[in-house]
Write a structure and sequence with these properties.
- This protein has 497 residues and is α/β, with parallel strands linked by helices.
- It folds into three domains: 11-107, Udp-n-acetylmuramoylalanyl-d-glutamate--2,6- Diaminopimelate Ligase, Chain: A, domain 1; 111-337, UDP-N-acetylmuramoyl-L-alanine:D-glutamate ligase, CATH 3.40.1190; 346-496, Protein-Tyrosine Phosphatase, Chain A.
- The chain is built from 17 helices and 25 strands.
- The strands form six sheets. An eight-stranded mixed sheet has the order 10-9-8-11-7-12-13-14. Strands 18-19-23-20-21-22 form a six-stranded mixed sheet, with helices on both faces.
- The longest helix has 16 residues, at 308-323.
- The chain starts with 10 loop residues before the first strand and ends with a helix.
């Protein structure tokens, strides 16, 4: 866990107890000083409050002894956890995870409020929007932090990300470290899991942004309404001051219906919105755009980003960048240089006669969007490779298969991250009910599937690998193997040169 260099003064355990309305039988709360918070016993440092939460298999309080050895001075947990702790003062609350971020933010004097902070949520586009925001800000000379799926950045320093949104105590400590290093902005992806699991507890953002919603993560949420509710919970005064919402979908209109925050509306074509495109002219190597924004702002520029969905992402990023105080004239100059996020329609170019791309698309809607974008800019065949992850939402598999068939000329079904499942069964579910064209093939070995795609490519075609994007590994039967689509694709191209 990244922490600020300068230690914080600390607060008494009694003050912590009063903050979260905890129960405790320990009499000496006033004399114990808390200087940090961690939900991970391995990351505990001297003076930390260990937050012990119930896990899928074991309760975190089981590790209180290890936390003590590492320097924990007390435990915040529930009644079940309290019964497992014998040698540390205990604060008891009904939901310790929900309070971890609150305590951490309080100890660090709410670091997010000292930066221009933005939370971006939605099924697709979170990574690209936050990456574009970070790229724009840095190019404008504004040191900024980024918290996302691919990486965490403090200015130019890269910190690998373990999950889309860190645990709440880790997040607040990270934000405090960013503030200490004089970051002016904090741009952050917020997943539905993060909201549901209270990973944004204690956070407050200047802007909460909504990109879109389509089927994903139903293995966790159960149904689309519950999934939507998790996203929508971000849009409240508890977490944000204002909302930036792409209004071009039914789900965004539903979000608008009960929105309590002031809203800035984003739309590709709706001129009643606060920000929209006046002109989009797709060229061979770039797209010329004219963006109209709040107060009559007009930004005329070009972008190398491909696809309507990336134009949506760019529009959102530009609107928020203006709100952060960056001059629209500077944004117009910066936009042609923007590259977007790693593993999002990322090119692999070794001088071959066809285009080769890698993308993270792993939902029916994202597969459809990526292939539609490539169709607009491709004269030749679209050769697409796709699998579905194991131990995840099974209901989306036939939908993803259908999107692959509909959007490509040559469809190759393969393995993604099968995890504990049989890859053959996953593919069987992907093709269930589909009429497979003669150009369709199934190859469970992902490396071989990529080689088949490259071998089929002719001048002017496009090969696109979907599903894994930036991921550096493939999980099979609980074992993670080194596997980077970009490297495997490059090797396959080299082998045919």
């Amino acid at each position: 866990m990244l922490r600020p260099h300068d230690p914080i003064a600390g607060r008494s355990l009694r003050a912590v107890s009063e903050l979260v309305s905890a129960n405790s039988t320990y009499a000496e709360l006033e004399n114990i000083m808390v200087t940090g918070v961690s939900i991970d016993s391995h990351q505990i440092e001297a003076g930390d409050l260990f937050v012990a939460v119930a896990g899928a298999k074991t309760h975190g309080a089981t590790y209180a002894g290890n936390a003590k050895l590492n320097g924990a001075i007390a435990v915040l947990t529930d009644e079940v956890g309290a019964a497992l702790v014998t040698d540390l003062p205990v604060l008891v609350v009904s939901n310790p995870r929900a309070n971890a971020g609150v305590v951490s933010a309080w100890l660090h004097n709410e670091p997010m409020r000292d930066m221009f902070s933005v939370a971006v949520t939605g099924t697709n586009g979170k990574t690209t929007v936050t990456t574009l925001l970070h790229q724009i800000a840095m190019a404008a000379g504004r040191e900024s932090g980024l918290v996302g799926t691919v990486e965490t950045r403090i200015g130019d320093e890269v910190v690998p990300a373990l999950r889309t949104t860190p645990e709440a105590s880790e997040l607040q400590s990270l934000a405090a470290a960013m503030r200490e290093r004089h970051m002016r902005n904090l741009f952050m992806e917020v997943s539905s899991h993060a909201v549901s699991l209270n990973r944004i507890g204690g956070s407050h953002f200047n802007i909460a942004a909504f990109t879109n919603l389509s089927q994903d993560h139903l293995d966790f949420h159960g149904d689309m309404d519950t999934y939507f509710a998790a996203k929508a919970a971000l849009f409240s005064y508890k977490y944000a001051d204002s909302a930036y919402i792409n209004i071009d979908s039914a789900w965004s209109k539903k979000l608008m219906e009960f929105q309590e925050l002031p809203v800035v509306k984003i739309s590709r074509n709706d001129k009643s919105a606060d920000w929209y495109f006046e002109r989009i002219e797709i060229g061979l190597h770039s797209t010329a755009i004219a963006i109209r924004g709040n107060g009559g702002i007009l930004i005329e520029t070009t972008t190398k980003l491909v696809g309507d969905f990336n134009l949506d992402n760019l529009l959102m990023a530009i609107a928020i960048s203006v709100a952060s105080g960056i001059d629209p004239i500077d944004i117009a100059a910066i936009t042609p240089k923007l590259t977007g996020a790693e593993g999002r329609l990322e090119k692999v170019d070794l001088g071959q006669s066809f285009s080769a791309l890698v993308d993270y698309a792993h939902s029916p809607d994202s597969v459809m969007r990526v292939l539609a974008a490539l169709r607009e800019s491709t004269a030749g065949k679209i050769i697409a490779v796709l699998g579905c992850g194991g131990d995840r939402d099974k209901s989306k598999r036939p939908l993803m298969g259908a999107a692959l068939i509909a959007g490509s000329d040559v469809a190759i079904f393969t393995s993604d991250n099968p995890r504990s499942e049989d890859p053959a069964q996953i593919v069987k579910e992907m093709v269930s009910g589909l009429t497979l064209p003669a150009t369709t093939s199934i190859e469970l070995d992902r490396k071989r599937a990529i080689e088949i795609a490259v071998a089929a490519a002719e001048s002017g075609d496009v090969v696109v690998l979907l599903g894994k994007g930036h991921e550096p590994g493939q999980e099979i039967a609980g074992v993670k193997h080194n596997f980077d689509d970009r490297l495997v694709l490059a090797a396959a191209i080299e082998a045919t040169a």
